[in-house]
Amino acid sequence: MESPLQYKYGIEINKLDNCPPADTQERNGEGYRFVFDEIGDERNFLPVLVLNPKRQITQTQECSGYALSFFDTLENARRKYESLLRSHRNIGKTLGTYIASGWISNADGFVSPTNAGGHFNLFEFSGCDLSATFQIVDKC
Amino acid sequence: MLTMEPLTGTTIDTFPWRNLEKVSDLICFDGPLLSLFKNSEGDQYLYYWCDADTEVNRWLVLRVSREDLEAYLHRRISLDRIVSAPGDGLLFALDIDHDLKIRQTVLLSPDQLPASYIPEPDSLLDTTHSVPLAESKYRISIDGDWELEDWSVFPHNYGKAYALMYSLFERKSGWAYHAYPWRGGYSTVNFYNALRDEIPEQHRPQVSSLQYSSPGWLELRLSVPVALLVKDSIKAYISHSNAREKYLDTMKELKARDLLGGQENRRLSVDSNVDSIGDSETLSEDDLSTIRSAMADLEKILNISGAVAEQLDAVTSESLVSLKILLSYYRIIVILASYELDGRAIY
Fold first, then answer.
1. pLDDT value, residue B2
2. Sequential DSSP letters for B146-213
3. Overall pTM > 0.90
């Protein structure tokens, strides 16, 4: 496990208990993420607690707020988006309306275990810049 | 340029529901999208994210009745029903900035909502592919005197109730429902152990904080929608004055029909592998009618309904097994309810 200070948001992460969680692990594989229509849009690869304005109601600082969400397959990403769109018709305004994919390697950070829906969180290391390697592959 | 929908309601100076306490996020993806709050009287409110621009996020805040919240959590009604028919017949649109300051408060009636703020008609709660709710907390108020044994009995039974509701709510594969013959205590113990083992680590109840005082609390980190299902069962049981009578009648009837323990297998067995025998091959029409009637009573007493009830039927594929599971759940709920009835816990 990397020292918290080697994470991109290490200062913030270091203030939280069990962050990143003990079960985060290395990953070498494809990842899929919701993005806005320009891959260089600065909102695309910022965690929720770093985005401005952040989509929060209370001051609670949760560990996952400093991670980026990904899916293991395009299908799982689409399925989640469809579900979110049913409950929130404007979801595209906060998550984007496209799906980008790219390779996530050990050098990019550690990831949480993938859940049943194919979702995992990436805790980026300092220097990680996925906007340089990810490409838009689909419209949501 | 990111812009928000124009609103036609009444702009007001102060948001009146300021002292709400967050209970849990119900829909969450890279931050909350639908969150449950409550006030000091226990009234429940929802914060529903609906829009954003470059300065603020917009949330609709509305009161939700216990019945509607229950129905939503049980997937009996969709989110559009709740948003378009709020508890007080009104809702507030809050524009909240990066520093969590309210920039604008607009009072709206449901018919003033822009179409894009109303969820789709099929917007049932979907946790199948949700991000883990590992960071959701649920607080049980505790009071009075707790003996050492209570700290074993209470979490043990709460864990079993949570495991069953989690399994049904999250539509788990259900191998545990077929793995045990339900012929007595051995089956029950192993069944709940198997259900517990199926819960992903991030959704297993963990003590987040505990204060033993009068009053105190036990705060758990778990899947809050599941905890609310357990709470619903406890409240429903308490409100049914004839629950015990119904339970005893059911047990008496099952015993009279040799349907308790393993006796049904001795009476009916043509094949020792009872799990492979469907109801129609093992039980008479009269037996089935009795079982279904008892199931209906217990589901009402325990407030098991909607998708959760359907999942129980689907996953066992045998009504007698479903009934035995409900009877065991009833016994667990009786224990948990006793803590509320004597003032030692409020769920």
1. 83
2. --TTHHHHHHHHHHHHHHHHHHHHTT---HHHHHS--SSHHHHHHHHHHHHHHS-GGGS-EEEEEE-S
3. no
Is B267 strand, coil or helix? helix
What would the two tokens of residue A8 be? 């991109």
Cα Rg of chain A, angstroms: 14
B129: confidence class by pLDDT, cuts 50, 70, 90: very low
Collect all residues with Cβ–Cβ distance below 8 Å to A89 and sequence separation of at least 6: B115, B116, B117, B118, B119, B120
Burial of B133 (0-12, 13-18, 19+ CB in 10 A): buried
**Separation between Cα atoms, residue B24 and residue B26, nearest integer Å:** 6
User: Helices B150-169 and B224-239 meet at what angle, rounded to 10?
Assistant: 110
Distance CA B328, CA A59 (A): 41
Question: Å from B127 to nearest chain A CA?
Answer: 9
Among candidate residues A137, A140, A37, A45, the one with its CA nearest the CA of residue A83: A140
Does A57 sit within 8 Å of B59, measured CB to CB?
A: yes
Total residues belonging to chain A: 140
ipTM of the complex: 0.91
Verify whether the Cβ–Cβ distance A57 to B22 is below 8 Å: yes
Q: At residue B18, does pLDDT exceed 80?
A: yes
More confident residue, B217 or A3: B217
Among B197, B199, B247, which residue's Cα sits nearest to residue B227?
B199
Indicate the helix (H) or strand (E) that contains B95. Answer: strand B91-97
Q: Which helix (H) or strand (E) holds B56?
A: strand B56-64
Residues of A in contact with B98 (CB under 8 A): 52-54
Q: How far apart are CA B285 and CA B278, in angstroms?
A: 13
pLDDT exceeds cutoff 50 at B78? yes
What tokens appear for B219 in the block? Answer: 């705060």
For residue B156, pLDDT beyond 90: yes
Q: In which band, very low, low, confident or very high, does the pLDDT at B275 lie, cut at 50, 70 and 90?
A: very low
In the stretch 239-298 of chain B, residues with CB closer than 8 A to chain A read: none
